[in-house]
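Pasting as-is:
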Amino acid sequence: MQDKIIGPLTMVQFVYAVIGFGICYVIYSAVPSPFSFILILPIATLVICLDFVKINERPFIDFFLAAIAFMGAPKQRVWHQGDDSDLSIEIYHVEKQTGPKYQHKTVTHEQISAAAKKTDSDGQALIKQ
């Protein structure tokens, strides 16, 4: 819990307000009147949201940064098939007398393709029913 320093504002909220409304004042002073309000409105809205809005009991800044990260992340994942080298799988077995032991198994590309085709054909059979 952060301490309130000025009215309902914490130190971080106060810094957001000073910087945000300072930018609004500079825009208001530098840009002619009808255009300045168009530029000031989104900045003032963002500052008010940063100071007072909570989403699911979390500060708005968490939501805002997550939204920016989501917009910057790719929405479609593409699998780039590499070389045809074999896949190596280690299986962990527990035996009572000898303790844990690793079994090394090599799976070929053809075995993986066959398993994928079987899975696809089983899924298609269920859909047709």
